[in-house]
UniProtKB/TrEMBL annotation:
Coarse class of the protein's main subcellular location: membrane
Domain of life: Eukaryota
Entry's Gene Ontology cellular component terms: extracellular region; membrane
Protein name: ABC transmembrane type-1 domain-containing protein
Membrane topology: Multi-pass membrane protein
Protein's UniProt keywords contain Transcription: no
Coiled coil start-end: none
Compartment(s) where it occurs, according to its Swiss-Prot or TrEMBL record: Membrane
Species in which this protein is naturally found: Dreissena polymorpha (Zebra mussel)
GO biological process: intracellular iron ion homeostasis; transmembrane transport
Keyword field: Membrane, Signal, Transmembrane, Transmembrane helix
Annotated GO MF terms: heme binding
Length: 997
């Protein structure tokens, strides 16, 4: 029955062993894979996987599995013991065998299920299950060894050493225990070596992290240096820009001062020109007065001369009338004297004209006057030639008369000679006729002389009229020249006034532009002040935001601390749970021990009242034939194993101490390095904050300097504005004066127009005089007609005489011849008179033509004057166009200046915007640095909290070590329990064996 039970148990254990080997292989492969992955993984993942909570849970699961296996083994042993106890009675043997088989099968199934279930728990639980399975296998082997086998004869010459079975069992048990302890220590050494590897990897990772942190710090330092350099460069650029702005402002001030100087100089020049113009006007007025006086004097002198000439002419005419009858030769002299006087008068007139021409100094008018004088000279020469011709004709007439007289005398002599024979009556009649003829001839001559004198007087009057006309024309020309001069001066004045007005307008435009620019500058300054106020408001808002951030960060730190405390609460709770679990396990082990003791006591109680079995006394010792060297080797092995156990225990303790020291050193190093890094970062951030504050102060100082400079530059601009207002008032007064001058000039122009009207009236008068001359010519024609009538009368007389002669033909042939001769002479004289009259008419026609030419010349002069006026007007228009072009150019230049000033203003605005951007960037940097400082403070606070939590962490490590020690103690207790169970089983087996035997 026992053999059947053992066979079933062996089969169950074999199945369990197979299952456990498969589980061991799977778990070892899983452990190796997890170990390799754990070694290859990062420290963070290793740290996350090797948390205390997971290790505690794995330890609790392993302890629970070992407890279950121990309970199953105890149940199986109890079932076997009950079966053996029940097998003592032969009646209940079958039932006991059945129950033992059932319990053994259930125990085997529970062992298999527990081993399979514990194989999946993890590497920590599989180690304990392996040890328990090995112990069970050893127990089964011992049970097989305890079976009654025949002794094996050893082929050794040594005598067999007889040892008691208990000793040998104890030695074997000790060997097994030592082997188990060695295995446990080796496993612990492997674990410690893996922990050392992990710690070394952690150290390497920490060193790498520290190197990275140092590199990051170096990079931060370099970046900070670069930032400082950039800030210094920005400051230098700002200083340069400020200097450039100052230079530009100074240049603008200089330009404004130069413009003011130019304006003042222009005003002075304008005033001087006005004074010069006034002086010139005064001088011109004085000259005009002098010229008028001179003209009046000249006119008076001319009138006196003309009166004297008229008196002289009258006297000469009287003398001529008196002396014509007496002296014909004196007529020539008188005519010569008249010609000389006329020449003298003409020379005087020419001298006067030359003086006037020299006063006027105008070439064109001089040329015209010279032409007029030449024409007059030609007229005079023609008149002289005509007079000479008249004189020659008179001389010829006289010669003819003398010849006629001589002829008559000769005829008379001939008649006398012929008529000596005639009677005295005929002689008397002839004498009477001769006397009558002579009287008629004398009367005719007197009439001719009177007619000639009248013609001469008329011609002299015409000449005087022509001279008067010439004088009037000269006066008109002088007046026209003066008017032209006045017009030129007025035009010059007008041009200057226009130039002055244009300059004033330009100055006003410049002043308006300057005022506009000043208004723009003031507007820009106001905008800049508003921008500065906005910046100050932004700074205040940023400071308020910083304070709010600080408050938020303080609140966050408090919340983090509370969260840390809340995170520590589960750790504390876990520690409490671990302690409770340890207490529960210890209580379970104590309960198990108590249960075992109770079972042993129950077994003893059950076994004690049995009847004593008669044993043969003395009993033979149970011996096993073993060779002595084997026993010695076993003892040496036991000693070596004990030494190795001691050494391994020492090594384990040393390794644990080293691990603890390394962990502490690592933590301290980490904390110190983190503190150093944080302190360095704090120092750097503080330095950066100081630098940024200095830069902000510098920027504020620069802005203040800019504002002061702008204010200092605005003061002279205001002074300039006041000066410009004063200049505007002065210019307004000057404009009023110029308007007055323009009114005066308009009055002068009206006077000139009146003078032109007077000239036109004079021209009309000249035309009237020409008409009068035409009337005189008509009168002369009438006189000629009268003479013709006289000739006709004479012809009638001749006809009568012819009739008489016809009557007296017979008697007075000679007389008729004489009469015919006389009549022929008379006809000749009449023809001469007619010729003279025709010549006079021709001369008058020539004079009329000359007058017409003079009028035409005057008209040409007027046309030339009008052309000059038109040219002057065109010049004025051209000058006005030029001035307009200049104004346009000046306006364009002003627009260009305005554009340049606007560009400068835009550049100033850009600079201010850049300054604002720099300020905002600096403020953002300050905010970032403050945020970094706050983060560093938070990290430092967290590290300090970690430093404060170090004892808690050390306590956790100690608790973990205590847990490991408790595990070891529990394992040792389980081994002791198993040994006790084995001893009990062996005792029971021996007891049953001896009882059965």
């Amino acid at each position: 029955m026992f053999m059947q039970l053992f066979a079933t148990a062996a089969a169950a254990t074999a199945a369990a062993a197979a299952a456990t080997t498969t589980a061991i292989t799977t778990t070892t492969t899983a452990a190796t894979t997890t170990a390799t992955t754990a070694t290859a993984a990062t420290p963070a993942t290793a740290a996350t996987t090797a948390t205390p909570a997971t290790s505690v849970t794995a330890a609790t699961a392993a302890s629970a599995a070992t407890a279950a296996t121990a309970v199953a083994a105890t149940a199986a042993i109890a079932a076997v013991a009950a079966a053996t106890a029940a097998a003592a009675t032969p009646a209940a043997a079958t039932a006991a065998n059945a129950t033992a088989a059932a319990t053994a099968s259930t125990a085997a199934t529970t062992i298999i299920t527990t081993t399979t279930s514990t194989a999946t728990v993890g590497s920590a639980a599989t180690a304990t299950t392996l040890l328990l399975l090995l112990l069970l296998l050893l127990i089964l082997l011992l049970l097989q060894l305890l079976l009654p086998l025949p002794p094996v004869p050893l082929p050794l010459p040594l005598p067999p050493v007889s040892l008691p079975l208990s000793l040998l069992l104890l030695l074997l048990l000790l060997l097994l225990l030592l082997l188990l302890l060695l295995l446990l220590l080796l496993l612990l050494l492997l674990l410690l070596l893996q922990l050392l590897q992990l710690l070394l990897l952690l150290l390497l990772l920490l060193l790498l992290i520290l190197l990275l942190l140092l590199l990051l710090l170096l990079l931060l330092l370099l970046l900070l240096l670069l930032l400082l350099l950039l800030l210094l460069l920005l400051l230098l650029l700002l200083l340069l820009l400020l200097l450039l702005l100052l230079l530009l402002l100074m240049i603008l001030m200089l330009l404004l001062m130069l413009l003011l100087l130019l304006l003042l100089m222009l005003l002075l020049l304008l005033l001087l020109q006005l004074l010069l113009l006034l002086l010139q006007l005064l001088i011109l007025l004085l000259l005009l007065l002098l010229l008028l006086l001179l003209l009046l004097l000249l006119l008076m002198l001319l009138l006196l001369l003309l009166l004297l000439l008229l008196l002289l002419l009258l006297l000469l005419l009287l003398l001529l009338l008196l002396l014509l009858l007496l002296l014909l030769l004196k007529l020539l002299l008188l005519l010569l004297l008249l010609l000389l006087l006329l020449l003298l008068l003409l020379i005087l007139l020419l001298l006067l004209l030359l003086l006037l021409l020299l006063l006027l100094l105008l070439l064109l008018l001089l040329l015209l006057l010279l032409l007029l004088l030449l024409l007059l000279l030609l007229l005079l020469l023609l008149l002289l030639l005509l007079l000479l011709l008249l004189l020659l004709l008179l001389l010829l007439l006289l010669l003819l008369l003398l010849l006629l007289l001589l002829v008559l005398l000769l005829l008379l002599l001939v008649l006398l000679l012929l008529l000596l024979l005639l009677p005295l009556l005929l002689l008397l009649l002839l004498l009477l006729l001769l006397l009558l003829l002579l009287l008629l001839l004398i009367l005719l001559l007197l009439l001719l002389l009177l007619l000639l004198l009248l013609l001469l007087l008329l011609q002299l009057l015409l000449l005087l009229q022509l001279l008067l006309l010439l004088l009037l024309l000269l006066l008109l020309l002088l007046l026209l020249l003066l008017l032209l001069l006045l017009l030129l001066l007025l035009l010059r004045l007008l041009l200057r006034l226009l130039l002055l007005l244009l300059l004033l307008l330009l100055l006003l435009l410049l002043l308006l532009l300057l005022l506009l620019l000043l208004l723009l500058l003031l507007r820009l300054l106001l905008r800049l002040l508003l921008l500065l106020l906005l910046l100050l408001l932004l700074l205040l808002l940023l400071l308020i935001l910083l304070l709010l951030l600080l408050l938020l960060i303080i609140i966050i730190i408090i919340i983090l601390l509370l969260l840390l405390l809340l995170q520590l609460l589960p750790l504390l709770l876990l520690l409490l749970l671990l302690l409770l679990l340890l207490l529960i396990l210890q209580l379970q082990q104590l309960l198990l021990l108590l249960l075992l003791l109770l079972l042993i006591l129950l077994l003893l109680k059950l076994l004690l009242p049995l009847p004593p079995v008669p044993l043969p006394l003395p009993l033979p010792p149970v011996t096993l034939p073993l060779p002595l060297p084997l026993l010695l080797l076993l003892l040496l092995l036991l000693l070596l194993l004990l030494l190795l156990l001691l050494l391994l225990l020492l090594l384990l303790l040393l390794l644990l101490l080293l691990l603890l020291l390394l962990l502490l050193l690592l933590l301290l190093l980490l904390l110190l390095l983190l503190l150093l890094l944080l302190l360095l970062l704090l120092l750097l951030l503080l330095l950066l904050l100081l630098l940024l504050l200095l830069l902000l102060q510098l920027l504020l100082l620069l802005l203040l300097l800019l504002l002061l400079l702008i204010l200092l530059l605005l003061l002279p601009l205001l002074l300039l504005l006041l000066l410009l207002l004063l200049l505007l008032l002065l210019l307004f007064l000057l404009l009023l004066l110029l308007l007055l001058l323009l009114l005066l000039l308009l009055q002068l122009l009206l006077l000139l127009l009146l003078l032109l009207l007077l000239l036109l009236l004079l021209l009309l008068l000249l035309l009237l005089l020409l008409l009068l001359q035409l009337l005189l010519l008509l009168k002369q024609l009438l006189i000629l007609l009268l003479l013709l009538l006289l000739l006709l009368l004479l012809l009638l007389l001749l006809l009568l005489l012819l009739l008489l002669l016809l009557l007296l033909l017979l008697l007075l042939l000679l007389l008729l011849l004489l009469l015919l001769m006389i009549l022929m002479l008379l006809l000749m004289l009449l023809l001469l008179l007619l010729l003279m009259l025709l010549l006079l008419l021709l001369l008058q026609l020539l004079l009329l033509l000359l007058q017409l030419l003079i009028l035409l010349l005057l008209l040409l002069l007027l046309l030339l004057l009008l052309l000059l006026l038109l040219m002057l007007l065109l010049l004025l228009l051209l000058l006005l166009l030029l001035l307009l072009l200049l104004l346009l150019l000046l306006l364009l230049l002003l627009l260009l200046l305005l554009l340049l000033l606007l560009k400068l203003l835009l550049l100033l605005l850009l600079l201010l915007l850049l300054l604002l951007l720099l300020l905002l960037l600096l403020l953002l940097l300050l905010l970032l640095l403050l945020l970094l400082l706050l983060l560093l403070l938070i990290i430092i606070i967290l590290l300090l909290l970690l430093l404060q939590l170090l004892p808690l962490l050390l306590l956790l490590l100690l608790l973990l070590l205590l847990l490991l020690l408790l595990k070891l103690i529990l394992l040792l207790q389980q081994l002791l329990l198993l040994l006790l169970l084995v001893v009990l089983v062996m005792l029971l087996h021996c007891y049953c064996y001896y009882n059965y035997s």
